[in-house]
Prior knowledge:
The chain is mainly alpha-helical. It has helices at 8-23, 25-34, 42-50, 55-65.
Amino acid sequence: MNATLRTLAELSQEATTILIREMGVVDALRFLTHMQPGSGDYTKERGEWLDDLSVGEITSAIKSKRPKRRRTNG
């Protein structure tokens, strides 16, 4: 096991090389674009829109978004 710490730039370069080798350029770039850090404070923002809801209200909202199941005869 290599215990040498590398810079973030070195680590990023190696990870990018491995992704491209294993996944191909297109999928590696799609992944890297998706994994870019966002902005804001998700935990704080989540609290702002969830704190006033009960578990029942959250559950009902989730269930209302699910596609309706079709009944089959037989």
